[in-house]
């Protein structure tokens, strides 16, 4: 993608540090090498091209890329899926990466929030992912977004490190309450604070 193309959908990154970042959802085969090189560079798990294709072909609306409009460089990506799992419709965040010089500006937060918003609009009841127990940055980021540590998975990764399974549960509407009655009460205030609405 050219810098001009990226700038078309440019929006503030939402973080400090200045500069605008352009966010786009997966747009086709030309985005695939960008996603792959970012993930291969930064994540400990090796993935085959079939794994990438599985995600981006089936759920293109859940993969987002972040571009620096100055030079058109792809600086971050999130890759996800959703589907039935043990009776629940569930979103899953498979990969999240932001290039080092661009970290701490809210780019990962924006990428993840966009995916979660689509999951929520698609009827997901929860979102899960795994993160290395040593990955303080990712654990802090997801903690801020409301994820809880649901389980510890022993030696989950090929490098032998344990994982935390993190889970975000979406608030369900109270079936006994008329929607108008929700307005102004404590539950509704929490709802309004949700970064996904
Ligand atoms: C984890 C990662 C995606 C975060 O990207 P980022 O764009 O810097 O994240 P954000 O700027 O949106 O951070 C949001 C919040 O997460 C927390 N956070 C992010 N990185 C952190 C770090 N290294 N140490 C502590 N907290 C961190 C902070 O609370 C931060 O908010 P603050 O800047 O207001 O304090 C990035 O560090 C990365 O690509 N790491 C390598 C790949 C990886 O670990 N992916 C996650 C796999 S589960």
Automatic annotation (TrEMBL):
InterPro entries xref list: Acyl_CoA_acyltransferase, GNAT_dom, NAA30-like
Gene Ontology CC: NatC complex
Lineage, top ranks: Eukaryota, Viridiplantae, Streptophyta, Embryophyta, Tracheophyta
CDD domains: NAT_SF
Pfam family, one: Acetyltransf_1
Keyword Lyase: no
Keywords from the UniProt entry: Acyltransferase, Transferase
Family, as annotated: Belongs to the acetyltransferase family. MAK3 subfamily.
The protein, known as: N-acetyltransferase domain-containing protein
Protein species of origin: Oryza punctata
A molecular function (GO) term: protein-N-terminal amino-acid acetyltransferase activity
Membrane-traversing stretches: none
Repeat found in the keyword field: no
Domain N-acetyltransferase: 22-171
């Amino acid at each position: 993608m050219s810098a001009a193309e990226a700038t078309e959908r440019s929006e503030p990154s939402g973080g400090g540090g200045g500069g605008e970042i352009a966010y786009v959802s997966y747009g086709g085969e030309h985005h695939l090498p960008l996603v792959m090189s970012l993930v291969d560079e930064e994540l400990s798990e090796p993935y085959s091209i079939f794994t990438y294709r599985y995600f981006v072909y089936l759920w293109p609306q859940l993969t987002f890329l972040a571009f620096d409009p100055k030079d058109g460089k792809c600086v971050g990506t999130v890759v996800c899926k959703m589907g039935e799992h043990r009776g629940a419709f569930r979103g899953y965040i498979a990969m999240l990466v932001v290039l080092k010089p661009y970290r701490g500006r809210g780019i990962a937060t924006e990428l993840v929030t966009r995916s979660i918003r689509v999951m929520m609009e698609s009827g997901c009841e929860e979102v899960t992912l795994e993160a290395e127990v040593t990955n303080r940055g990712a654990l802090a980021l997801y903690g801020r977004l409301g994820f809880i540590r649901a389980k510890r998975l022993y030696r989950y990764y090929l490098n032998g490190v344990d994982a935390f399974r993190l889970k975000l549960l979406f608030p369900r509407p109270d079936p006994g309450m008329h929607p108008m009655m929700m307005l102004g009460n404590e539950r509704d205030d929490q709802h309004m604070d949700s970064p996904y609405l």
